[in-house]
Specification:
- Strand 1 and strand 2 form a beta hairpin.
- The protein contains 9 helices and 4 strands; from the N terminus they run αααααααββββαα.
- Residues 1-7, 105-133 and 139-149 have low confidence and may be disordered.
- The chain is elongated and about 50 Å long.
- 42% of the residues lie in helices and 5% in strands.
- It starts with 11 loop residues before the first helix and ends in a 7-residue tail after the last helix.
- It is mainly α.
- The structure holds zinc ion (2 copies).
Amino acid sequence: MDTKKEQKGWTNDELEASVDAYLAIQARYPNDEKFNKSAEHKLLQGGVLASRNTKSIDYRLQNISALFDELGLKPIIHYKPKVNIGSGIAARLTKILETKGLLTQSTELLATEGDVRSRHVKPAKAQNFVDVPEDDSPPQQGVTVTRYFVRNSKIKGWILENAKGICEACDQPGPFEMDGKPYLEVHHVKHLAQQGKDRKNNTVALCPNCHRRCHHSSDRVEFTDSLYKKVKRLKRQ
Ligand SMILES: [Zn+2]
Ligand SMILES: [Zn+2]
């Protein structure tokens, strides 16, 4: 249940605007750079969220962080996961993420009932198992977390391995070393937030400069086009 009165009665439009804002912030600051929260929240208040105060918006974005955390999506670290999302809100946010292609399917459980935190326990109870599994034990039936779309760390590993420390855009080595290896970042050419897939054919290893260029530069569209030409494994999605 929602714990704060002000959180009651959020419309789907309001929730979707919050999710959109969250994804937009994440796309602009992919490496958790600091940003001006109140400016972002003011933008939202200029639109659908006109009747919500900054605190309330902040709270909702923290809810989204909690849900991202739960679903294995990378949350924005500047929004500390507030875990006491109401089950109704969690289900509605999950649906919204699903329509945006960030999840493969929603689980029946999240869509219908339950505190997000206790989802592993609920199916067991429903089946009257004697032993209720611990929260970190594998789910007992078809309702599983693995059905969610999750950034695949294997892909990330493969992409970095394959690049051998050289930026796939500018062919320069990573600008410094981290853990003894040249530092590169993994970029989804069609952004995850735009329903891009977490696949080898949508993912490249870039130096931080080229990565920024993909997201922020005036020629980002042309630059991205050049990536599709240069890196043969990439396919437009
Ligand atoms: Zn580069
Ligand atoms: Zn990127």
